[in-house]
Design goal:
alpha+beta, Nucleotidyltransferase, domain 5, 5-stranded mixed sheet, 23 strands, 37% helix, transferase, kinase
Length: 503
Amino acid sequence: MSSPDLLIGVDVGTYSSKGVLVTLEGEVLRQATRPHGIQVPQHGHVEQDADGVWWADTASILRELTVGVTERVAGVACSAIGPTVLPLDVAGRPLRPGILYGVDTRAQAQIDALNAELGPDAILAHSHMALTSQATGPKIRWLREQEPEVWAQTRTLTTASAYLVYRLTGQHVLDHHTGAHAMPLYDPRTQAWTDTYAEAVLGDRNLDRLPRLAWSDERAGHVTAEAAAETGLRPSTPVAVGTVDALAEGLSVGAVQPGDLMVMYGSSTFFILTQTAPTPDPRVWSVGGAFAGQVNLAAGMSTTGSLTRWLADETARELPIDEAYAELFAQAAALPPGADGLLLLPYFSGERTPINDPQARGVLAGLTLSHTRAHLFRAALEGVGYGIRHNLEALRDLGADVRRLVAVGGGTRGRTWLQLVSDITGQPQEVPQVTVGASYGDAFLAGLAAGVLTRDDLDRWVKPGDPVVPNPAVKPEYDRLYALYRELYTQTKSVVHGLGQKG
């Protein structure tokens, strides 16, 4: 039998899971997708079922991709939404749905308590970032305080990508990028778990509940006989440690050199800047990279692609979703900058960076009877563009070296949104020829973990595409509107916070 010559990557996102079967040269042979939803049991609580969504999608995709080629698969890697919190019992079974990343804002009281007990300056010095809704430490404390019956049965605390690794290999392994968000349980200097502040989160100093830490391209283990029966994979197939979807997206487009900034246009917008040294700042997140020795500066908006999906669902429900998007994007593209006087804050599930305000809400200003759904849609696209500019300015304010913007994700399929963002930010963006997404980056990680690829092979996998160049003619107008966007948040913040309070 010839040596295995195919790789599989699977990514579980917020609204769908995707998988690819790829050759060692980076050619995509097969793709598979599984749509799914989220659970919002109450405002601020956003969850997904670990077995019914994460594992069910992954196993189904793997069965589809491996038909007729099981023996040729050299390795597999998974990424997923993150950082999430999933408690497992002693048998490795989920005790409740997974608590999602920064769009889940349930733990604000625990953030406030940790800041009061430990001090925000001490937390920043210890973790290289401030506590926000993206951090999993406060959510672990929320679980301990609000669901003591679940906590009493919890043997392992894991996250979405690590749970997939566990189901494939029987090993609890977590990548450093995701582990850094379990603050203040992770020490970025030693790149290891620490019990310094463990009692404030866990109630004790027992770190055995946490998975083993490793780098994304390392081998977590091998496919077990049980997992092989469920997935169609060959027993003993190497499995990579994997990572969160955003980091895999960055890898998929080659944004791995210092100064490379990946902008991921997904259900949320995520930014990952590759660095050689950390630049701690409370506005953003300083975390480990995919590979040993790398540091990432990360940031993220909460509702971007999910906002456009909401608008399509609510204003064009008579059309299938693909047709709704095509019509709304075409209509929005025909409108002038500023959507005829309409301005939108895209904070529909609080906001992450750089304002880190879980109580923020969407605001639509300037409505008149002449505005249409096309105006609403363009205002949403521009609102996201202003949010991206706000994040870019925050990165530069703290001294980060941003040399190149590389765009990836579902929002890059058309040029309308990309052009708006480049016009608003004044920054060109690169869009590689192949923008399959995180699953493509996962396939590359699978090759590294299996030992059939080296990092230098990424240059063969990623092929440059045409850049998106800003239009200087519209910059003055967008500069004016961006200033109003910043002022709109400041002027409406207290009103919005008041609306969110229960009477």
